[in-house]
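Input (structure):
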C-alpha cells in the first residue's frame, strides 16, 4: 500500500473524530460562527519572495518574514489557502526539507503517524474544521545532527476578506539537530474580517534544540484560534517566543509543551499589547513527565483602551525530579481595560516537585516617569520608554537576527502609540 492509499484510511478516521465535535465551542474565549466564511481564489506560485506585491512584502516584514532571504536557510509562504512558495537555500540542501503538510502526508507514512498526536483532533470545533476543511500549512523537517545557523521562516498570510484559513503545520527537529524558526501570521492591509485556525504540532527529538518565534499581526475585526502542542524528548530543549502588538477582535490559544523525555527543558516567552477593544485569551501549559525536567513561562502584558487580556499559565508535574516557574506581569493604561492573570500549578503524585509562580498587575511608577521627564522626554515618551523596557523580555541565546526583528516590532508599536 502506498503512502497516498494509506492516507485515505487515516483521513477517514480523523474526519470521523472531527465530525463528532464540529459544533463544540472552545473552553475559553468567545465563540465564532464558522459557517459564514468563503473559499478564496487559488493563487499562482511565485519564483521568489521578492516578486510579491509591496503590500504582501510589507505585511510579511512586520510579522518577521524577510523577502530578501539572505539571512534565512529556507522559507515557506502561503496566501489564503494556497502554498505559493517553499524553498531550501542551496547551502542547506540535505540538511532540512520544507513543503506543505499536504505534500508531506502524501510522501511519508511516519508523518501520518505523527498527525494529531500533539494536538487532539477532537479538542473543539476549531480543530475539527482544520481537519474537515484542511487548507495547507507548512512542514519543516531538520535532519538528524544538523545545526542550522540561519533561521527558517514561514508566513501564513490572508489576502482576501471573510476567509477561514485552516492550516495544520508540523515541525520535526530530528535527533541532535538545532534550529531557529520565525513564523509570521498576518493579513494584507485591505483585509478587515476573517479567521485563522492554525494547528501546529512540533516534535523535538532526543538531544535536539528548537527556538520558535511567532509574531502575530492581525486586523481589528479578525478572529484567531491557534491550537499547538510540542512533544519534547530526552535531553531536548524547546523555546517558544510569542508577540502580539496589533489590535485583533479576538484571539484564544493555549499552547502546550509535553516534556516526556528525561532532562528535557521548555520555556515560553510571551509579549502582548492589548489595543482598542481586543479580546485576548492567551496562555501556556507545561506538562512535566520525564525526570529532571524543567519549564519556565514568562509573560508580559499591557492593556490599553477597552482591551481584555486573560493571561493563563498551567504547570503540571507528574514526577518528583522536576522544576517549573511561572512569571506573569501586567500593566494597565486605561480605566476601561482589563487584565486577568490566572496561574495554575498542579503536582500529580509528585510531592517533591518544585512549582512556583509570580503574578502581578501594577501601574507605571510615577517617579520613573518624572525622572525621565527631567532628562528631556515628554510624559508620553517617558511612559512609552518604560513600557518598552517592561515588554523587553530577556531571552537567553536569542540569535541576533531574531532579536533585531523583535526589537523592530516593539519599536514600531512604540511609534504607533506616540
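Output (sequence):
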Amino acid at each position: 500500500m502506498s503512502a497516498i492509499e494509506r492516507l485515505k484510511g487515516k483521513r477517514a478516521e480523523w474526519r470521523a473524530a472531527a465530525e463528532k465535535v464540529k459544533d463544540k465551542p472552545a473552553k475559553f474565549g468567545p465563540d465564532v460562527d464558522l459557517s459564514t466564511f468563503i473559499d478564496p481564489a487559488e493563487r499562482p506560485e511565485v519564483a521568489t519572495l521578492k516578486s510579491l506585491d509591496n503590500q504582501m512584502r510589507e505585511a510579511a516584514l512586520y510579522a518577521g518574514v524577510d523577502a530578501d532571504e539572505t539571512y534565512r536557510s529556507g522559507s515557506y509562504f502561503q496566501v489564503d489557502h494556497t502554498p505559493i512558495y517553499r524553498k531550501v537555500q542551496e547551502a542547506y540542501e540535505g540538511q532540512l526539507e520544507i513543503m506543505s503538510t499536504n505534500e508531506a502526508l502524501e510522501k511519508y507514512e511516519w508523518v501520518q503517524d505523527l498527525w494529531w498526536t500533539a494536538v487532539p483532533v477532537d479538542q473543539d470545533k476549531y480543530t475539527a474544521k482544520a481537519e474537515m476543511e484542511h487548507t495547507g500549512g507548512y512542514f519543516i523537517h531538520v535532519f538528524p545532527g544538523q545545526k542550522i545557523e540561519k533561521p527558517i521562516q514561514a508566513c501564513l498570510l490572508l489576502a482576501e476578506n471573510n476567509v477561514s484559513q485552516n492550516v495544520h503545520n508540523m515541525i520535526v527537529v530530528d535527533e541532535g539537530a538545532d534550529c531557529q524558526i520565525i513564523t509570521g501570521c498576518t493579513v494584507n492591509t485591505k483585509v478587515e474580517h476573517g479567521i485563522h485556525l492554525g494547528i501546529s504540532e512540533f516534535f523535538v527529538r532526543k538531544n535536539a534544540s528548537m527556538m520558535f518565534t511567532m509574531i502575530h499581526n492581525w486586523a481589528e475585526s479578525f478572529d484567531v484560534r491557534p491550537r499547538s502542542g510540542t512533544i519534547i524528548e530526552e535531553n531536548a530543549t524547546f523555546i517558544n517566543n510569542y508577540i502580539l502588538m496589533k489590535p485583533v477582535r479576538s484571539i484564544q490559544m493555549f499552547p502546550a509543551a509535553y516534556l516526556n523525555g528525561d532532562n528535557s527543558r521548555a520555556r515560553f516567552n510571551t509579549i502582548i499589547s492589548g489595543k482598542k477593544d481586543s479580546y485576548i485569551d492567551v496562555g501556556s501549559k507545561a506538562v512535566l513527565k520525564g525526570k529532571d525536567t524543567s519549564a519556565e513561562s514568562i509573560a508580559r502584558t499591557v492593556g490599553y483602551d477597552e482591551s481584555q487580556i486573560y493571561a493563563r499559565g498551567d504547570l503540571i508535574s507528574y514526577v518528583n525530579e522536576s522544576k517549573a516557574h511561572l512569571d506573569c506581569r501586567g500593566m494597565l493604561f486605561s480605566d476601561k481595560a482589563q487584565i486577568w492573570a490566572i496561574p495554575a500549578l498542579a503536582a500529580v503524585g509528585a510531592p517533591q516537585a518544585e512549582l512556583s509562580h509570580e503574578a502581578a498587575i501594577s501601574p507605571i511608577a510615577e517617579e520613573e516617569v518624572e525622572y525621565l521627564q527631567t532628562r528631556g522626554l515628554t510624559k508620553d515618551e517617558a511612559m512609552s520608554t518604560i513600557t518598552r523596557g517592561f515588554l523587553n523580555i530577556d531571552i537567553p541565546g536569542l540569535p541576533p537576527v531574531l532579536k533585531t526583528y523583535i526589537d523592530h516590532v516593539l519599536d514600531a508599536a512604540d511609534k504607533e502609540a506616540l
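Notes: The chain has a mean pLDDT of 91. The CA atoms of residues 263 and 390 lie 31 Å apart.
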